[in-house]
Amino acid sequence: MSSTAEVQAAEPPSDCALCPRLVDFRTENQQNHPTFFNGAVKSFGPVTARLLIVGLAPGLKGANQTGRPFTGDYAGDLLYATLSKFGFASGTYAARPDDGLTLVDCMVTNAVRCVPPQNKPVGAEINQCRAFLTARIDSLPQVSAMLALGRIAHDAVLRSRGQRVAAFKFAHCATHDLDGVTLFDSYHCSRYNTNTGVLTTEMFEAVFERIRRHLDAS
Predict the structure, then answer these.
(1) Which residue range is the domain that position 127 belongs to?
(2) For residue 122, with 0-12 CB atoms within 10 Å meaning exposed, 13-18 middle and 19 or more buried, which class applies?
(3) Which of 10, 97, 105, 126 is the most interior residue, by most CB within 10 Å?
(4) Residue 170's CATH number
(5) pLDDT digits (tens, 9 = 90+) for 22-46
(6) Are 215 and 51 contacting, i.e. CB atoms less than 8 angstroms apart?
Protein backbone atom coordinates (compact mmCIF):
# COMPACT_ATOMS: atom_id res chain seq x y z
CA MET A 1 0.00 0.00 0.00
CA SER A 2 1.34 3.41 -0.88
CA SER A 3 1.77 6.18 1.66
CA THR A 4 -1.07 8.15 0.05
CA ALA A 5 -3.44 5.20 0.32
CA GLU A 6 -2.31 4.49 3.87
CA VAL A 7 -3.24 7.89 5.23
CA GLN A 8 -6.71 7.69 3.67
CA ALA A 9 -7.53 4.47 5.54
CA ALA A 10 -8.86 4.02 9.06
CA GLU A 11 -6.40 1.19 9.67
CA PRO A 12 -2.77 1.12 8.54
CA PRO A 13 -1.24 -2.07 7.12
CA SER A 14 0.70 -4.06 9.70
CA ASP A 15 3.94 -3.13 7.92
CA CYS A 16 3.13 0.59 7.77
CA ALA A 17 6.25 2.46 6.62
CA LEU A 18 5.30 6.07 7.40
CA CYS A 19 7.55 6.60 10.45
CA PRO A 20 11.22 5.63 9.95
CA ARG A 21 12.07 5.45 13.66
CA LEU A 22 9.14 3.16 14.36
CA VAL A 23 10.01 0.99 11.37
CA ASP A 24 13.56 0.62 12.69
CA PHE A 25 12.21 -0.31 16.12
CA ARG A 26 9.84 -2.83 14.54
CA THR A 27 12.73 -4.43 12.68
CA GLU A 28 14.70 -4.66 15.92
CA ASN A 29 11.74 -6.25 17.69
CA GLN A 30 11.22 -8.75 14.88
CA GLN A 31 14.77 -9.91 15.53
CA ASN A 32 14.54 -9.85 19.34
CA HIS A 33 10.96 -11.12 19.63
CA PRO A 34 10.21 -13.14 16.48
CA THR A 35 6.99 -14.61 17.92
CA PHE A 36 5.46 -11.17 18.60
CA PHE A 37 2.93 -9.51 16.30
CA ASN A 38 5.38 -6.63 15.63
CA GLY A 39 3.19 -4.46 13.46
CA ALA A 40 0.72 -1.59 13.35
CA VAL A 41 -2.11 -2.62 15.67
CA LYS A 42 -5.62 -2.30 14.30
CA SER A 43 -8.60 -1.02 16.28
CA PHE A 44 -10.74 -3.50 18.21
CA GLY A 45 -14.53 -3.36 18.37
CA PRO A 46 -17.64 -2.97 16.19
CA VAL A 47 -18.09 -0.11 13.71
CA THR A 48 -21.53 0.46 15.25
CA ALA A 49 -19.86 1.61 18.48
CA ARG A 50 -21.09 4.78 20.15
CA LEU A 51 -17.99 4.94 22.35
CA LEU A 52 -14.44 5.18 20.98
CA ILE A 53 -11.58 4.81 23.46
CA VAL A 54 -8.25 6.28 22.35
CA GLY A 55 -5.02 5.22 24.03
CA LEU A 56 -1.45 6.32 23.40
CA ALA A 57 0.34 3.50 21.55
CA PRO A 58 0.83 -0.27 21.71
CA GLY A 59 2.95 -1.55 24.58
CA LEU A 60 6.03 -3.55 23.61
CA LYS A 61 4.90 -6.68 25.44
CA GLY A 62 1.21 -5.83 25.29
CA ALA A 63 -0.48 -5.02 21.99
CA ASN A 64 2.79 -5.22 20.05
CA GLN A 65 3.06 -8.81 21.22
CA THR A 66 -0.58 -9.84 20.80
CA GLY A 67 -1.81 -7.65 17.95
CA ARG A 68 -4.89 -6.42 19.84
CA PRO A 69 -5.09 -3.04 21.62
CA PHE A 70 -4.48 -3.15 25.38
CA THR A 71 -4.04 -6.92 25.37
CA GLY A 72 -1.23 -8.57 27.30
CA ASP A 73 -0.24 -5.89 29.82
CA TYR A 74 -1.59 -4.36 33.02
CA ALA A 75 -3.31 -1.47 31.26
CA GLY A 76 -5.50 -4.01 29.48
CA ASP A 77 -6.28 -5.85 32.71
CA LEU A 78 -7.78 -2.68 34.18
CA LEU A 79 -9.38 -1.42 30.97
CA TYR A 80 -11.17 -4.60 29.98
CA ALA A 81 -12.31 -5.37 33.53
CA THR A 82 -13.83 -1.90 33.65
CA LEU A 83 -15.43 -2.27 30.23
CA SER A 84 -17.01 -5.53 31.36
CA LYS A 85 -18.30 -3.96 34.57
CA PHE A 86 -20.05 -1.17 32.67
CA GLY A 87 -21.51 -3.34 29.92
CA PHE A 88 -19.06 -2.50 27.16
CA ALA A 89 -17.56 -6.00 26.87
CA SER A 90 -18.74 -9.58 27.03
CA GLY A 91 -16.85 -12.82 27.47
CA THR A 92 -13.69 -13.39 29.47
CA TYR A 93 -10.56 -11.33 29.00
CA ALA A 94 -7.54 -13.65 29.13
CA ALA A 95 -4.88 -11.32 27.66
CA ARG A 96 -4.92 -13.17 24.32
CA PRO A 97 -6.44 -12.07 21.01
CA ASP A 98 -8.21 -15.45 20.77
CA ASP A 99 -9.77 -15.31 24.27
CA GLY A 100 -13.24 -14.72 22.82
CA LEU A 101 -13.70 -11.28 24.37
CA THR A 102 -16.02 -9.05 22.38
CA LEU A 103 -16.73 -5.36 22.78
CA VAL A 104 -20.27 -4.03 23.02
CA ASP A 105 -21.08 -0.56 21.65
CA CYS A 106 -17.39 0.29 22.09
CA MET A 107 -14.18 0.39 20.06
CA VAL A 108 -10.61 0.69 21.33
CA THR A 109 -7.79 2.23 19.31
CA ASN A 110 -4.55 4.18 19.77
CA ALA A 111 -3.33 7.60 18.70
CA VAL A 112 -0.15 5.91 17.41
CA ARG A 113 -0.58 2.42 15.97
CA CYS A 114 3.03 1.14 16.15
CA VAL A 115 5.01 0.55 19.34
CA PRO A 116 7.48 3.38 20.03
CA PRO A 117 10.78 3.05 21.93
CA GLN A 118 10.29 3.59 25.68
CA ASN A 119 6.54 3.94 25.01
CA LYS A 120 7.18 7.53 23.90
CA PRO A 121 6.19 8.53 20.36
CA VAL A 122 7.62 11.80 19.11
CA GLY A 123 5.51 14.63 17.73
CA ALA A 124 6.16 13.79 14.10
CA GLU A 125 4.93 10.22 14.65
CA ILE A 126 1.79 11.38 16.42
CA ASN A 127 1.11 13.81 13.58
CA GLN A 128 1.79 11.19 10.91
CA CYS A 129 -0.60 8.70 12.50
CA ARG A 130 -3.38 11.26 13.02
CA ALA A 131 -4.82 10.56 9.58
CA PHE A 132 -5.70 7.04 10.71
CA LEU A 133 -7.40 8.35 13.85
CA THR A 134 -9.33 10.91 11.83
CA ALA A 135 -10.46 8.27 9.35
CA ARG A 136 -11.31 5.87 12.18
CA ILE A 137 -13.56 8.42 13.89
CA ASP A 138 -15.16 9.39 10.58
CA SER A 139 -15.94 5.71 9.91
CA LEU A 140 -18.06 5.34 13.06
CA PRO A 141 -21.54 6.59 12.13
CA GLN A 142 -22.99 6.32 15.63
CA VAL A 143 -20.09 7.57 17.74
CA SER A 144 -21.30 10.08 20.35
CA ALA A 145 -18.63 9.70 23.03
CA MET A 146 -14.86 9.41 22.99
CA LEU A 147 -12.55 8.65 25.89
CA ALA A 148 -8.97 9.91 25.76
CA LEU A 149 -6.58 7.96 27.95
CA GLY A 150 -3.94 10.56 28.74
CA ARG A 151 -3.04 13.97 27.42
CA ILE A 152 -1.42 12.80 24.20
CA ALA A 153 -4.57 10.93 23.21
CA HIS A 154 -6.64 13.96 24.26
CA ASP A 155 -4.58 16.27 22.03
CA ALA A 156 -4.69 13.78 19.14
CA VAL A 157 -8.48 13.59 19.26
CA LEU A 158 -8.80 17.37 19.35
CA ARG A 159 -6.47 17.85 16.39
CA SER A 160 -8.23 15.09 14.45
CA ARG A 161 -11.45 17.09 14.88
CA GLY A 162 -9.82 20.35 13.83
CA GLN A 163 -10.08 21.82 17.33
CA ARG A 164 -7.63 24.11 19.12
CA VAL A 165 -5.89 22.14 21.87
CA ALA A 166 -5.59 25.24 24.06
CA ALA A 167 -9.38 25.57 24.15
CA PHE A 168 -9.91 22.18 25.82
CA LYS A 169 -7.76 21.57 28.89
CA PHE A 170 -6.97 17.94 29.72
CA ALA A 171 -7.98 16.88 33.23
CA HIS A 172 -9.02 13.59 34.72
CA CYS A 173 -12.82 13.16 34.55
CA ALA A 174 -13.20 16.32 32.43
CA THR A 175 -15.71 16.43 29.57
CA HIS A 176 -15.68 18.51 26.41
CA ASP A 177 -18.33 19.08 23.75
CA LEU A 178 -16.85 18.63 20.28
CA ASP A 179 -19.70 19.58 17.96
CA GLY A 180 -22.13 17.02 19.33
CA VAL A 181 -19.61 14.36 20.35
CA THR A 182 -18.56 14.39 24.00
CA LEU A 183 -14.89 13.87 24.77
CA PHE A 184 -14.16 12.37 28.19
CA ASP A 185 -10.69 12.50 29.72
CA SER A 186 -8.95 10.02 31.99
CA TYR A 187 -5.43 9.48 33.17
CA HIS A 188 -3.96 6.53 31.28
CA CYS A 189 -4.60 3.17 32.94
CA SER A 190 -0.90 2.25 32.90
CA ARG A 191 0.77 0.30 35.66
CA TYR A 192 2.95 3.34 36.40
CA ASN A 193 -0.07 5.54 37.02
CA THR A 194 -1.82 2.98 39.20
CA ASN A 195 1.31 2.05 41.16
CA THR A 196 2.02 5.70 41.95
CA GLY A 197 -1.58 6.48 42.88
CA VAL A 198 -2.08 8.90 40.01
CA LEU A 199 -5.01 6.73 38.95
CA THR A 200 -7.03 4.41 41.18
CA THR A 201 -9.63 1.88 40.10
CA GLU A 202 -12.29 4.09 41.68
CA MET A 203 -11.09 7.12 39.70
CA PHE A 204 -11.14 5.12 36.47
CA GLU A 205 -14.60 3.75 37.13
CA ALA A 206 -15.89 7.25 37.89
CA VAL A 207 -15.12 8.22 34.30
CA PHE A 208 -17.01 5.22 32.96
CA GLU A 209 -19.96 6.01 35.19
CA ARG A 210 -20.20 9.38 33.45
CA ILE A 211 -19.84 7.78 30.02
CA ARG A 212 -22.51 5.21 30.82
CA ARG A 213 -24.94 7.91 31.96
CA HIS A 214 -24.20 9.95 28.84
CA LEU A 215 -24.90 7.07 26.48
CA ASP A 216 -27.95 5.86 28.37
CA ALA A 217 -29.44 9.34 28.16
CA SER A 218 -28.87 9.69 24.43
Answers:
(1) 3-217
(2) middle
(3) 126
(4) 3.40.470.10
(5) 999 999 999 999 999 999 999 999 9
(6) yes
